[in-house]
């Protein structure tokens, strides 16, 4: 069983029963994580995460499995366990070499203020169930919370406790998503009209991009102006976005734009794949109220080298306010980060091994080479 403490939300106040402790809506930046038995990850023990975490490794080493862990936890928080097992290919794909090899999946995340721990076990009908799931506020040794060890014990103390715990988990973890704007085909979510509702956040595949941009335009005009200026750095032909409800269906909105020096409207279908992806990435990283953690899967895909450099600048700019975890295959992107930002993934003994780089590994090479070149030379691992 992974380390953990009592369930969040319950604290004594000297009177009969329990009161619900005021909670932050976000989990906070993750300081360490421990994982056992997820996909190719046999074991990670208290891996340190920082503001910027750039994951590098060979194809098949386990980068995508690492980033998908956050998608997995986010979907658990949204009560999508059964659907998640099916969408990920069943127990043989989720558990390290299947349920015979891995009888339990465990995860443990710690931020500066909160701890989340969960253990899941396979069921005979081919899905997963929680053996336990705990959310603890104030760090591992907070004296303000009672020693409630399980949901069953919480139910004994207060029949409504599990029902109250579930929305707390949802509020704090459900925004963990893996953002990938890879699909820019004709009928991709990024190129379609979206429902005109105020979005909680940008969808993982960018499917609500028009509504999200409209939200920024109407509610955060300074951010919207900054976004437009940033996009123009890699698409100087773009005069402005034109965002308004559809004439024949006021519940829908579509991304349209004007070319510099022209009056006619252009459609989202007229944007190149790279430009559209960059618009989505810029909106994600410049948003005024981001999630505590943003996870990116190969964000450099299809971008011009100049756009990759600008993407790196946006990541650096966002990092003081949001934790960024990004898996990449691009030496060009890697060149824009320092050695302290990297986590190297290697496949050893049929399992993914994750480690942070140390200065001693790269110091002899740093004067002559950028980090992408050091990686390409196979000096720090993360290569076939």
Keyphrases for this structure?
2 domains; single chain; 384 residues; Rossmann fold; 6-stranded mixed β-sheet; 5-stranded antiparallel β-sheet; alpha+beta; 13 helices; globular
Describe, in plain words, how this protein is organized in 3D:
The structure is a single chain. Helix 7 crosses helix 8, helix 8 (221-232) runs antiparallel to helix 9 (273-286) and helix 9 (273-286) runs parallel beside helix 10. Helix content is 30%, strand content 24%. The model is unreliable at 1-23 and 139-162 (pLDDT under 50). The protein has two domains: 10-177, Rossmann fold, CATH 3.40.50; 181-290, no CATH class. With 384 residues, the chain is α+β, with helices and mostly antiparallel strands. The strands form five sheets. Strands 9-15-16-5-17-18 form a six-stranded mixed β-sheet. Strands 4-3-6-7-8 form a five-stranded antiparallel β-sheet, with helices on one face. A three-stranded antiparallel β-sheet has the order 11-13-14. The longest helix has 15 residues, at 63-77.
């Amino acid at each position: 069983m992974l380390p953990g403490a009592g369930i969040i939300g319950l604290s004594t106040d000297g009177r009969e029963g329990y009161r619900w402790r005021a909670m932050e809506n976000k989990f906070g930046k993750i300081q360490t994580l421990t994982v056992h038995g997820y996909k190719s990850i046999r074991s990670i023990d208290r891996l340190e995460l920082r503001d910027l975490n750039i994951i590098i490794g060979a194809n098949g080493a386990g980068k995508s499995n690492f980033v998908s862990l956050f998608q997995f936890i986010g979907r658990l928080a949204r009560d999508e366990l059964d659907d998640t097992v099916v969408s990920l290919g069943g127990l043989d794909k989720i558990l390290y070499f299947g349920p015979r090899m891995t009888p339990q999946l465990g995860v443990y995340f710690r931020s500066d203020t909160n701890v989340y721990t969960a253990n899941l076990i396979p069921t005979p009908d081919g899905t997963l169930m929680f053996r336990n799931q705990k959310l603890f506020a104030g760090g591992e040794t907070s004296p303000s919370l009672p020693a409630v060890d399980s949901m069953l014990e919480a139910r004994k103390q207060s029949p409504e406790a599990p029902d109250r715990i579930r929305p707390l988990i949802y509020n704090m973890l459900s925004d963990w998503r893996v953002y990938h704007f890879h699909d820019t085909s004709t009928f991709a979510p990024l190129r379609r009209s979206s429902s005109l509702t105020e979005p909680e956040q940008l969808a993982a595949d960018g499917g609500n991009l028009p509504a999200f941009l409209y939200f920024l335009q109407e509610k955060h005009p300074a951010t919207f102006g900054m976004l437009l200026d940033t996009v123009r750095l890699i698409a100087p032909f773009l005069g402005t976005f034109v965002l308004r409800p559809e004439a024949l269906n006021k519940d829908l909105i579509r991304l349209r734009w004007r070319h510099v020096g022209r009056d006619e409207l252009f459609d989202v279908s007229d944007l190149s794949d790279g430009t559209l992806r960059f618009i989505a990435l810029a909106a994600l990283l410049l948003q005024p109220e981001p999630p505590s953690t943003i996870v990116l899967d190969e964000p450099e895909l299809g971008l011009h080298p100049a756009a990759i450099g600008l993407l790196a600048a946006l990541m650096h700019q966002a990092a003081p306010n949001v934790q960024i975890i990004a898996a990449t295959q691009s030496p060009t992107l890697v060149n824009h980060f320092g050695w302290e930002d990297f986590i190297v993934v290697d496949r050893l003994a049929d399992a993914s091994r994750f480690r942070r780089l140390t200065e001693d590994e790269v110091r002899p090479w740093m004067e002559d080479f950028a980090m992408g070149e050091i990686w390409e030379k196979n000096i720090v691992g993360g290569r076939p």
